[in-house]
Each structure stands twice: as structure tokens, then as C-alpha cells.
Amino acid sequence: MTDPLASSGLVIVDKPAGMTSHDVVGRLRRIMGTRKVGHAGTLDPMATGVLVAGIERGTKFLAHMVAATKSYEAVVRFGSTTTTDDAEGEVLTRADASGLTTQQIHEAADAFRGDIMQRPAAVSALKINGKRAHELVRAGEKVEIPAREVTVFDLQLGELEGTDIPLSVTCSSGFYVRSLARDLGEALGTGAHLVQLRRTAVGPYGLSDARTLEELEHHPALSLSLDEALIRSYPTLECTEQEAADLAMGKWLQPRGLKETHVAVAPDGKAIALVRENGKRLSTVFVARPSTL
């Protein structure tokens, strides 16, 4: 019997510069031959790297996808600020950054490790009164987004070349590398903005999983089936055929003492549902293989 989820899963795209995430979705709809395509974790047009797209039923999984951490490689340029905190914006201020040293920048970066309060970039996908912040900015409105707590798990900086310094960062969701560039510039009194950005990982998905749009054009295929994506993203809970059938119908099971969301896996290796304990019930969070399929 044909698996009804054979065409459902994730495509991990190595996004090229100059395209919006929405542009990538449009291309994938043509490549994969379906309208049911979505993406998680918007990348700016100037950015490249890992963009996770859901195909068919994989689109419903995106809301549950574990992406607690993201990793980036970037280049920050000191000596000027821009309206967007990156190279795509108009220059706001200029300052002499020729006296900066690698050591000064490394020392300033110490304040941006661990749990920090960060003010998101005004040109972001965050919604304010129902509208994206970047839409309001481009319409000429002044946008002030309050700071919020984010976590920088790892921040490594290279050597200063001219007024540019490369860095790599692993951070929590909600962290903006553009904002880090802006804040480093403020801390050092020269201003700064982002000139390169490449996302190397989103949760458990990295560049080793990613394919370019050109590669996908020639060989359309999922990067991971829905089963593979669920099992990579969550700890597994093995269940019996009867338990799998019950979960497929949205029924709850007896609790097992689980502390977090698990993926329930049937004896044949198929991922049935995401489950989580709620009081005296082990309930479904997302049914990947509903009995109605």
C-alpha cells in the first residue's frame, strides 16, 4: 500500500542571497509540484544558508519543530550605522573606526554572551498591532520594539580586517545578529552594521542537510521524510500497534512519567504523533499520521 505521507516532510534549502524566504517558497511550490509549502524561521534577502521548508503535511509540523538554537556566521563592519542595521539600509551615521583593535572588540563582546536583554531590529518580521515591523519602517513610521531576553550559547570572533570582523554565534530563537552588530558598534562608540550573514543550522538541521534551489530543480526530493524529521527533532517513545492506532485517532494514553514532548513511534518505525503528559493523560500535541489518512 502506498504511504499517504510519502510526499510529506522537510526540504532544507541553502538559500541564496537576494531572495526572500517567500520567494523560496514560491520556487519550491513549482519544484515539488504542490501548493502546500511553508517555511520556518525567516531569512532576510541578504542572508544565505539554512531555511527549513515544510512540504504537504510537513507544513503542519513546522509549528511544532524544535528549533531552540540557531547558528550563524557573519561579518560586522564598524564605522557606520544604517536604518536596517545591515548593508541593505541607508547609512545613518559615520565615524572613524580606524583605531579599533581586535582586542577591544573581543572585550566588548564579553557583554553579549549568556542570557542578555536585546532590542530586536526595527526591520524585523515581528508583528506590531497586526503588521510586520519592517512594513511599518518602510512605510516611514518610527518603530521601537522593547528589549527581550535571549540567550547566546556561543560567540566566537576572528581577527579584525580593516573595519570588518568575522564572527560565529549560536543563539536562542528570537536573537538578531543585526542587533548584535548594532550593539557592538554602540558599545565601542563607532557604530556598526552587518555586511554578511549565513545561517549554518536551525535546531537539528544544518548545512549538511541543505541543497541549493538549482540542485532541487534537477533532483526534486525531500531532505527528510516526516518520520525522519520528527524522530530527529524529539526523543522517541516506542508504542504498541494498539497504542499507535489509539494515538492516530487522537485518543490519550496512560502517563509514562515523561518530562517533555516525545514522538510516539509504532513498531514499524513510523512516527505517529507528538505526545506530552498533561496531568493523568499522555495526550497528542500533533498527530502526524491521523487515522483519516
Automatic annotation (TrEMBL):
Keywords: Isomerase, tRNA processing. The keyword Transferase does not apply. NCBIfam families: TruB. Residues 178-219 form the tRNA pseudouridylate synthase B C-terminal domain. Residues 29-177 form the Pseudouridine synthase II N-terminal domain. Belongs to the pseudouridine synthase TruB family. Type 1 subfamily. GO terms for molecular function: RNA binding; tRNA pseudouridine(55) synthase activity. This is tRNA pseudouridine synthase B. The lineage of its organism: Bacteria, Bacillati, Actinomycetota, Actinomycetes, Mycobacteriales. The gene is truB. Responsible for synthesis of pseudouridine from uracil-55 in the psi GC loop of transfer RNAs. CDD domains: PseudoU_synth_EcTruB. One of its GO terms (biological process) is tRNA pseudouridine synthesis. Residues 234-289 form the tRNA pseudouridine synthase II TruB subfamily 2 C-terminal domain. SUPFAM superfamilies: Pseudouridine synthase (SSF55120), PUA domain-like (SSF88697). It catalyses: uridine(55) in tRNA = pseudouridine(55) in tRNA. The active site is at residue 44. It comes from the Bacteria. HAMAP family: TruB_bact (MF_01080). Its EC number is 5.4.99.25. PANTHER family: PSEUDOURIDYLATE SYNTHASE TRUB1 (PTHR13767:SF2), TRNA-PSEUDOURIDINE SYNTHASE (PTHR13767).
